[in-house]
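ok so i was messing around last nite and threw this chain in just to see what happens. nothing serious, just curious
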Amino acid sequence: MVAMIPVAVLIGLLVIVIMLFGSDALSGGSQIALLFGLAVCVLISMTVYHTPWKTFENQMTKTLGDVSVTLLILLTVGMLAGSWMISGVVPTLIYYGVQILSPRFFLVCACVICALVSLLSGSSWTTVATIGVALLGIGQALGISEAWTAGAIISGAYFGDKMSPLSDTTILASSSVKVDIFEHIRYMMLTTTPSILITLGIFLFAGLGHGGEGSLHIEQYTDGLAATFNISLWTLLVPLITGILIARKVPSLMVLFISSILAGLTAIILQPHILCQIAGDPSLSTPAAIFKGMAITYYGSTAVQTGYDALNDLVSTGGMAGMLNTIWLILCAMCYGSAMVASGMIESITRVIIRWVRTRLSLVTSTVGTGLFLNLTTGDQFISIVLTADIFRDVYDKEGYEARLLSRTTEDAATVTSVLVPWNTCGMTQATVLGVPTLTYLPYCFFNILSPLTTIVMAAIGWKIKRNRN
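result:
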């Protein structure tokens, strides 16, 4: 099939890039692979199907316009990560967290905490960028693998994102097929509840096997943090106010920006010595050095010396500049996805899949497969959700199945698996924020892996799946 050629080219190039660059694949190689895939798609469409260039240009303009807020959020996440670290917010959370949380129950606690925060905020991105970063540091201090910790953080964050009425993906999935959002959430509980319970069971079992080898790390981390930062409970006012803003349903971009500003003021008051160290210019007066250090914290990379190499790595940040590779990758992924949509190749491929639909199980499995495929090929979960709903809406109606089955299956497939794709906007963002490559944390994101499998099992059983007799 001609439509599969750009996909095959992209997958082949990405395999080569990952083999050659490993965890550095997102620093440039993957972007080049996406641009070559884009070029092949456009070349075939214009020469074989005579698609005018203006069609591609219009689709790219629309898609990049839709993703502009996402790019602003990413830059603000960079500000937040730097300011929360340098202000002492994250160090304080780590300092007290390693003394309170038991290594044996840390993974399950991390998953539950992220699930609650994400449920309240409706945003997995906000959850991972705030409490997720702190939990990753606590996990490192407890001697727990960063891959396991990242898996617990992401599993919890995407559970809350998926089940929250405030989540944009939840609203999009339900509204795309005209299902009441609360009916959509209630119906998702049938597949989501088993997935999260199994996930928590796995993290509990894995944590119980953890010994006391983290005690030395704990002492080093607490001593290093106390000697470097002004550890104070006053710093926790920043996450407290952030939580209040989230509870009041303030938009994510505003929450992240306000939180960054509050953290910056906290750094000026409580950590001026660190800001002067970051400025690195002894000729400056103290106020000027503090201002320069704060600016660098927001936009550039920072390195704070604590006396311990592992802790130095933990408290270093990339600021807004650290998000630029991710933004570059998102732009390339969006352009590739736009070309695939504008050329009609995505629709051609999914129409072939629909031809195999014969039973309830094959219908749901095809929907799941389409959501996964679109996450791989378009690089964006929002595009995947909308296209999956559009493609299967008439099929579900023709077969007499309730629209809520389509909305649930779409979210079980497209929303939670997006973070497992290295070149998808979600995969790129979480890997950058946590500093853990997508392919490293992927095997431990049990909730994200189980969700599409559970929805297929439920389709095979037929539990609570009814045909519309009207």
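not much to say yet. The longest helix spans residues 181-208.
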